[in-house]
Amino acid sequence: MTSHTTERPRRVGGRSARVTNAVYTAVGHLMAHERPDRITIPMVAERAGVNPTSIYRRWGDVDALLKEVAVAVMAHENDVLPDVGTFTGDLTEWAELIADDIARPERSRYLRALASARDELVEVCPCWNVRGAQAARLIERAHERGEAVPTVDQVLDHIIGPLYHHAVFALPVTRSYARRLAADVLLMAQPAS
Amino acid sequence: MTSHTTERPRRVGGRSARVTNAVYTAVGHLMAHERPDRITIPMVAERAGVNPTSIYRRWGDVDALLKEVAVAVMAHENDVLPDVGTFTGDLTEWAELIADDIARPERSRYLRALASARDELVEVCPCWNVRGAQAARLIERAHERGEAVPTVDQVLDHIIGPLYHHAVFALPVTRSYARRLAADVLLMAQPAS
Fold first, then answer.
1. What GO molecular function annotation could you give as one example from this UniProt entry (chains A, B) (predicted)?
2. Does B91 share its domain with B182?
3. Nearest CA in chain A to B190
C-alpha cells in the first residue's frame, strides 16, 4: 500500500490541505510519544479530529501514512544549503546539519517508521532523492570553483547511509561523527577534469 | 527491557539450551512470515511449544527477544573470513559475503526487528562489535603484509553502515554495491608506517 505515497499525486489546498496538516500534526505528536508499531489510524483520526474512513481512503494503511509523513519531514529538511566558499566547509556543515536533525528522538522515530513501513523492495528511497539533489548542488558549486570533488553516490553512501544507519540502530549521531564521515568522503575527491 | 539481552549472562546447556533453540527457531519462522511488529510472545510460545511465562521471565518482552535473536544471527555470520592474500581481495569478498547475507528477506527482517527493538540510545551495537572484530583481523593481516590499510572505523562506517542502511530501508543490497563500497574504502587506505 505504500505505493500510494509515491504514485498518487498529492491534492493540495482547501479541505484536503487542512486534513493533511491535521493528520501530519497528529502523527508527529503520536510519534513523539508512542512506538511506531503501536500507532493506529483510529488513534491518528481521533487526535486529528478527522474521520478514520477518510484516512483509510486516502492513505490505505497506517504504514503508508507513517511513511508519507516521514518522507515529508525529510523533504523539508535543510532547504538552505551551506555555502561557505569551500567544498570541505560546505560538506562538513551539511553533514553536521543532517546529524543535528536526525539526532532528535522524534526524527529517529520517523526514520524507524520509514524503515518499518517498507515491506517491498523499492529502487529509490524518496528522502534519498532529496539528499542526492542537495549533494549534487554542493558538488556542482565546488566543481565550478575547480575543487576536487567526490561523486554524488559517494556522498550518499558514505555520509547519509552511515548517519541514517546510526539513527535507526540507536547508535550515537553526533556532529563529530558527521565531521569524521565528511573527512573520509573528502579522501575520495578527484581533481576537477 | 532490551538491556536483558546484553546484561544478563545467557545460561547454556540442558533445558535452557533446548528452550533457547526452540524459541530462536520459532522467531526465525515467524520473522519470515510476519511483520516484526505483529509478532507476539504468545505466538512465539505456541510455535516453540514453550510456556509463554518462561519467555516473559527470561526475555522480558518481545522486543528484547527479537533483538537477541537478531544479534545472535549477526554474531554467527561469516565466521570464516576471506583470505585471498591481498587486502583489496579480502575486503571486497568480505563486503560481498555480508551483502549476500543481509540481502535475504528474512535477514532484512531481522535487521528491522533489531532497529525497532532499540528504544534507548546505546553506546555499542552488538553486531557492530562482531563486524569490527572481523574488520580488525583483515586489517591486521594486511598490515603485516605491509599493505596500505584504512581504520576499523572507516570499514564499519563506510561498508557496514551503508549496507545495513540499504537493508533496513529496502534499498537494493547487491554484490556490485558491496564492491563499490569496498573500492571507496580502499581510497582511504594509508601506507603502513
1. DNA binding
2. yes
3. A187
